[in-house]
Amino acid sequence: MSVATSVAARLPSRSTATNRGDRIRRKLAANLTAYLMLAGGLICFALFSWYPTVRAFILAFQKTNFVGASHWVGWANFERLFADPEFTAAWRNTVEFTGFALLIGFAVPFLLAVVLNEMRHAKSLFRLLVYLPVMVPPVVTAILWKWFYDPGDGLFNETLRALHLPTSSWVYSTSTAVLSLVLVSTWSNMGSTVLIYLAALQGIPADLYEAAELDGANILQRVRHVTVPQTRYVLLMLMLLQIVATMQVFTEPFIITGGGPQDATISVLYLIYKYAFVYYDYGGACALSIMLFVFLGIFSAFYLRLTRTND
Amino acid sequence: MATPTIAVAPLPPSTGPAPQPPDTRRTRKARRRAAERSARTLASPMALRGRKGRTIYWTVFTVLLIAFVIGFLFPLYWMITGAMKSTPELLTTPPTVVPHVWHPSNFASAWSQMDLAQYIGNTAIQAGGAWLLQIVFLTMAAYALSKLR
User: Fold this and answer.
1) Residues 212-251 of chain A whose Cβ lies under 8 A from any Cβ of chain B
2) What fold, for A76-309?
């Protein structure tokens, strides 16, 4: 209400007093409606997003079981986390997962989009095919791949055996488990990224390619000096979004491996889940949550700053 | 290295929307070809028209199509046909690509054994409720924000 008045008061007065009073009143009424319309969304956000965030920060320093009284414990929740061997394993696996996801899950969709953009036939068919996995619910994808990865009856090992190639134990060995999960996550998320890259690639002006070609640039040089610089912002933004998303990997380890073998695939988010709903240690879960939150926040800030000053 | 600036010949002045010729198959094809020429990409249309270019193009096209079908369609085919195999057939080695005996009744038994109607109902209520709230509140909030600016 006061904001509305001040906005109205700052307007240049170009007409008579009665007219101005009229206008102020009208402005107020209009903005009042605007604030009322905004209120619904704000209440939803406050209730479902901001309040839980603040509550997590408080719970991280408390001991509670949501039944009896909760009391303050200082940094005890954090100290307990640091002493937990699963904590180190979870962070190491998550960083490893993110690294592989960048190597595979970031490069492959871009290259695929560049090649797809060259296709002059069956464009919509290609798009439909690459987008099919996105339409499968993540849990279904995870169960399907768990079946593929089965060392005995799984499709992958059956195929390898039929071709007389060495089989792999996929998610059942500590050395290949994380990489196998990255394959699942790449397969299921690639579609949307490819479509975004395709849209970005179509925005590149044809003259640039023509000019580069007249200068004698071959195809790889054209990719390097035209395609990549022209899609730079989309690439950088999607890389940030992908890092933030893969740091929060949960479905694949939860469904396929259950964190095993020997904690080789336990992720930070999965450990949060374990603390909250297996150990019923809500304080520890909240402490780990805000650690991930702060880490991703600082990382995103640094990333945006770095990529901005590079211009 | 910065690419040197090149004087590009000015484009012929556009004559505005030309009178549309009757929509026969021939003109449609010609128009599509013209659109393809204007939207050039990495590979130049000239290179694609040559014999070598066409060979490379169709090779890449075929490889990509096969890879996409195997990579993206086949897992789903496997899931759907797997759902229609009997349990012994599901466990045979080597696995059967096409089910010997189709058991669509698996879907019916899953439906009745797992109380799927209830779950689908829950999902519909949850998704529909979220959808409705978002449509109402977020549209209103977006409109208000644009007005307050």
Assistant:
1) 212-215, 219, 222-223, 225, 227
2) MetI-like fold (1.10.3720)
